[in-house]
Amino acid sequence: MAAAEALLEVDGLHARYGSALAVEDASFAMGAEPVAVIGRNGMGKTTLCKAIVGIQPPAVTGSVRFAGREIAGRPSYRVCEAGIGYVPQGRHLFGSLSTDEHLRMISPRLVRRGRWSIADVYDLFPQLADRRKVSGTELSGGEQQMLAVARALLTNPRLLLMDEPSEGLAPRIVEELVATLQTLVAEGIGLLLVEQNLGVATALAQRILVMVSGRIVLETTAAELQADEDAQRRYLGVEPLAAPSA
Predict the structure, then answer these.
(1) Going by DSSP bridges, is the β-strand pair 59-66/207-212 parallel, antiparallel, or unpaired?
(2) Which domains are present in the chain?
(3) How many CB atoms within 10 Å of residue 162?
(4) Confidence of residue 236 (pLDDT cuts 50, 70, 90)
């Protein structure tokens, strides 16, 4: 991908926890199209997310450019201001805050700069509107994920970076989440998805990056990976995806 077309460019990225190298020489570029990073547990996917958005503790070297500007090493709030919305693994909600308070803590300046307002995210997720006074940690797993996505949308990002969004969710809720994300992509929001669930990854992204032991070892397409049973077993340790029913 030419630099002029790239929204996010990661070049020679290394991330360490002390002396332990968790991400090694990661390089890729993406535009507004959805891209998925897949791999087993412990392969460095979450560390890659933290390195991109500036969340400690990984010590980072290399380059991360967003919309042509270097953001590697910048604090996370500056990365957010630049236009990357982060939905972390595990949601990271606060028991002391209600659903509505989670949304109202977003900087009004970020809310004003784009399409998404609190009213808009309540329209997108009406279940949250019904439970706006409930503590964020007392919501169901699906509702918590809705809240984490809504919180990120209120920063009005150009790119959503999502770490394991389907983790711990019932299949029906996963289907609803996928449909919501497909709608957001159709509206023009870029999506970088980190997933273990191959079905979710291939439903949302045609371009797939496979991560093994901190390195991106393969770039492929959803169709090619779905057709390659050996690769599914080797890189993900899963039985091949079943063919979709007619």
Answers:
(1) unpaired
(2) 1-83+160-166+192-239 (3.40.50.300)
(3) 25
(4) confident
